[in-house]
Write a structure and sequence with these properties.
180 residues; mainly alpha
Length: 180
């Protein structure tokens, strides 16, 4: 089956986006609360839970890989953010903007990687790196919205932690899930 760029989106594609986006939003609320528990256990106000940040982006990578259309990651990010907000995210409405920006980064990375039907090793690495960047965007957007005055080194460390989590959980783990 070959996909063309002018092919319209199908009902199956819309349902896939809706199911995975909703699952991602509901699970991300839970992951957010687990991150807060980690912060509490380590005695820091925020950031320690960023080692799980890739689990938020995992769903967006799956959506974009299963439905290889431009803008699908962005739409999935918006839906995921809305569901996450309405299921009780601790970030409130800001999580919608965070998820939307994460979806935009996934779309940009998928476009840079090329066609999903003939992936090479280097294009797979581009997918993984864009998943890491998308996870790191979480920290950056929240710092822009809620500037906490935290030291630059602390923000840098948790951004790198979120990036690594995105490469592992959102990039590598998503591709292994698809191959399974």
């Amino acid at each position: 089956m070959t996909l063309q760029f002018n092919q319209s989106i199908t009902t199956r594609d819309i349902v896939t986006i809706a199911i995975l986006g909703s699952l991602g939003g509901a699970m991300s609320t839970f992951v957010g609360y687990l991150g807060n528990l980690v912060n509490l256990a380590l005695g820091v106000p925020f950031g320690a839970g960023q080692f799980m940040a890739g689990l938020h982006v995992f769903w967006l990578v799956l959506i974009r890989a299963i439905v290889p259309r431009h803008g699908v990651g962005t739409a999935g990010g918006l839906l995921k953010g809305m569901v996450e907000m309405f299921t009780g995210s601790t970030h409130g409405i800001a999580i919608v903007l965070v998820s939307l920006v994460q979806g935009i980064v996934i779309d940009a990375g998928a476009s840079a990687a090329g066609s999903i039907t003939d992936l090479e090793d280097n294009s797979r690495i581009i997918w993984w790196l864009s998943a890491g960047l998308s996870s790191a965007v979480n920290v950056i957007v929240l710092q822009v919205l809620y500037f906490t005055g935290a030291p630059f080194i602390y923000i840098s460390v948790i951004t790198i932690l979120a990036f690594c989590s995105g490469v592992i959980f959102a990039g590598y783990f998503a591709w292994e899930t698809l191959e399974f």
